[in-house]
Amino acid sequence: MSPTKNPALERLAGTLGHPRLSPLRFGPVLLRSNGPGIFELLHVDDASADPARLAPVEVEALADLAANDRLGRFRPNKASPDLVSGWICRPRDTESLGESLESLLPGGLSDWYATQATDLRVVPFREFADRQTGMFRKIASLSDPEACEVARACCDVRFCLRRRLWPVGEIGVDAAASKSDAPCLEPCALLLELARRAHRMSQEERSTLHLGETDLASIAVALDTAIAHPPSDLREGDLSNPAHPRRLLLLREKLLPWLPEAARGKGE
Ligand code: SF4
């Protein structure tokens, strides 16, 4: 009896074998085909590298490779760009391709396959917020503009390469070209925690500060620098750290209406 075929995997293999549709990017991982049934996975940053210069990695070693960044810090979000680079994996068959992907980006294949259907179901921020309980219940009281600030800060391409397909406020969903083919169908745990903190911060006593455009421009530059160079011991999941890049970007989002035009870009 032949083994049951996984339709998601079959669709993926077919897509990779199609010259117009291949390669695909799943978060920080590039997938490509070098002929029928021959697949390669590597870091997107290594797309133009000579494959002979990349270290071959077995499928069984990919989960460990994806666990930590190059500084040895745990990666709670496997779609973060901080996956180590410099390797290449060649799964022996389609089934092995599925195992590879599940190690590098858990759930990525099934989410991608869901986007191929006509009845794609995503969870909007409001629905997600309304079903929270306990200490997360209060995120439902974030206004639409506040929820948008949270989404922009949390899902920024510098932190996550899944393309957000769930709606929030007035901001549009992410284009595949800006991130990758791996979709995000509902807010994740990192976004939930950032939203909780944003709500808590919104309840704090306010102070009044008068700053001119020059000072505001300097603050924007300082924030961009701190976002690009976080402390080496900072963990992605530790949103209690005031130096966390997502918190700094959230602060920048709040300052946006007051920043001089030249400082509005994100200094990428
Ligand atoms: S909610 Fe945002 S940060 Fe979390 S996985 Fe989705 S796109 Fe990435």
Structural key phrases:
two-stranded parallel ribbon; 7 strands; 9 helices; 268 residues; Gyrase A, domain 2; alpha/beta; binds iron/sulfur cluster; 5-stranded mixed sheet
Task: Describe what this molecule looks like in 3D.
The strands form 2 sheets. The chain has a 5-stranded mixed sheet. The model has no long low-confidence stretch (mean pLDDT 94). Helices cover 34% and strands 8% of the residues. The protein is built from 9 helices and 7 strands. It folds into 2 domains: 7-114, Gyrase A, domain 2, CATH 3.30.1360.190; 125-263, no CATH class. Bound molecules: iron/sulfur cluster. The site of iron/sulfur cluster has 11 residues, from helix 7.
Provide a quick synopsis of the model.
The protein is α/β, with parallel strands linked by helices and 268 residues long. The chain is 34% helix and 8% strand. It is built from 9 helices and 7 strands, in the order αββββαβααααββααα.
Strand order of the largest sheet: 1-2-3-5-4
* SS field, number of helical segments: 9
| Rg over CA atoms | 20 Å
The stretches of 5 or more residues where confidence is low (pLDDT under 50) are none
Number of domains: 2
Name the bound molecules. iron/sulfur cluster
How widely separated are the two ends? 54 Å
Helix fraction by DSSP (H/I, runs of at least 4): 25-40%
Overall morphology? globular
Which structural class do you get from the secondary structure elements? alpha/beta
- Determine the mean pLDDT: 94
The largest sheet, given as strand count, sense and whether it forms a barrel, is: 5 strands, mixed
Number of strands: 7
% residues in beta strands: 5-15%
Pattern of helices and strands: HEEEEHEHHHHEEHHH
